[in-house]
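Figure-free illustration: sequence to structure, shown twice.
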Amino acid sequence: MSQGLRIGITIGLHHEAETLWNNGIKQNAAFLAEALRHCPKVAGVVLVNTTQVPITAALPWDQTRYPTLSFDAAKDSVDVLIELGGQIDEAQTTYLKQRDVRLVSYCCGFEYVHAMESILFSKPMWGENLFVNQRYDDLWIIPQVANISRSYLEVLRRLTGHVVPFVWSPMFLDERVKDLPDAGEYRAHDGARRLSVMEPNLNVVKFCLYPALIAESAYRRRPDSIAMLQVTNADRIARESPEFIALMNQLDIVRAHKAVFLGRHETPAFLAQSTDIVVSHQWENPLNYFYLEVCWQGYALVHNAHLCADLGYYYREHDVEEGARRLIEAIETHDAHASWYRERQRTEIARYLPANRQLVATYDALLVDLMARPVR
């Protein structure tokens, strides 16, 4: 450790030019790598791909800044392997343990929800071939998944978990928006507001129904102030779910033909081209990259994420009435202080940036503690 730790962070590539915007896992690995590079105990960080997809120049990140290797290429040169976006198997674990490599399970997904839905709704995940690694040296859990998944993870991994700092950086966002007008930042303008709901609609954690109800409640009071409600990631359910169709047809904003249900869109471009205000709702995921992207760019975010209640226009829990009030507040007042709002959001978001002093000190202390204990 006197010469500095060499750390690997796993990813699981599905193809050579995989986009960074299909989920947050690849971004998570790069952001964590950036934070760990600031730790005094760290000599270097590499991304380690655990699939058979080859590493090529088509990857959407700078491989000089974030060297990316296959497991076989990295296995003899790391002191710590953080399993984040790709799982290693039993034989690979044994090999690393023979080298006294510390193995960390870094949990950034709502694993309990995934397991519950897989079992209850026949959504296959691992079948009978589940491998739960019993040789982790530490269990790191980001704050927004700790409440619902921590105990689930601790029992299965046979470890006490540590809640670790959430890390985010605008580096990929900045790259994506650099050629957009005004770098994709919100600009005040006259006229009715375009509302967007961009929940993934893949499970109960982030679903579009409550945001649609908030928009409806605001529309009933200020119909002339709302130009359109756009619900992305909803084209399939808007075509195939009779229950969703029946519910939406109860809404005045739908009956007035001011609501559209769209497919998937990249957040930065859709904000810049189509959005004034984002309305969001989460259930047991009270902090995610989407909120930070929206607020960093200066867009009004109406949300119920208590871990970042100081960002955007916060409403509590599932309170549609309060959400509608905050939405109307954003409609009526946001443009008057749009530039100030954007700068304040960035000041608050600074606590999540990879170079934040307290964040780096916490990860450095975790590494010191990890290396002080014998390998499992």
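We now fold a second protein in the same way, so the two outputs can be compared directly.
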Amino acid sequence: MSENIRAGTNRLRVAAVQMRSEIGERESNLKRATPLIEKAAREGAQLVVLPEMAASGYSIENSMWIAAEPVDGPTVQWLKETAKRLGIYLGIGVEEAEGEDFYNTYVLASPDGRIAGKVRKVHTEYNIFKPGEGSRIIDTEIGRIGIGICADNHYIDMPLEMQEKSIDLLLMPHAWPIPFKAAGVVKEEDVREQQENVKGYSQLFARMLGVPSVFVNAVGPIGPKRWEGILGRLIDPAVYRNAGYSSISDSDGSLLARLGPEEDGVIVADVTLDLTRKLKTAPVSYGGWLHPGDPLLRKVVMPAEICIAKLKYAVRPGRKAKARAVSRGR
């Protein structure tokens, strides 16, 4: 990690690449990402961040396993080559297979074309992925980087870990669907509230931790059909879309850049990594969450959903054989 950051302050130019990813279309997704990354590099970005599962597209159906690959598979080879060609740190979300399991993984490559590290999502899509274990920190020459993948950023254990490990910079890759109109059980106030949550997420963490925060989100439809489970059936593709609103906030909590809700695009900003700005303030907990929500949903429905999803994953026919085959490159 960078000693000058530990000693005082350092400026770093970072970029968020907001993009739509089609489910299972790795080649076209990476092709769409490449000119956006190149644009960020031309504008001087030293670190470029893509969304959660940008390579495979995002869904919570076990049909997603067709898009899985080993961690040294085609996406990561492309990642390393692109990072080296452009001389940047570059991160992307990958659907990873290892051993008998699948993971929602985020991989960061360094400017020399090597893997700086990877992080697996902990609060994951339990019906298709095994929860990640271990640190969500990657030490690099530009500083200690914390990575929270989508839902991981919504629980209180995330900022507590980041404070304990004294990170210098936080990356928050998401594929976060929210309602874009009122319909059925979704009210106008729900639309407004969830939009404000998304818009303010990089600032929320920057103000809690005193470090720069890069929130990067997917855009576009969530899929042609509703997802599994009670909650999945409530997330109507006619009402919900990946929210966008990617943003970059500095270590003083100021918002530096933000994209809108619909567009593929890039934002670039200079952030300050400053040891003296780091905070240890205890975050406000809403029953273990970082923002308010319906108590019945969180205390009854979601725990039941998670138990059912974990059981489905454990007994899903062919899951172990499929993961073994993918992880071996077959």
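Summary for the second example: The chain has one domain: 3-325.
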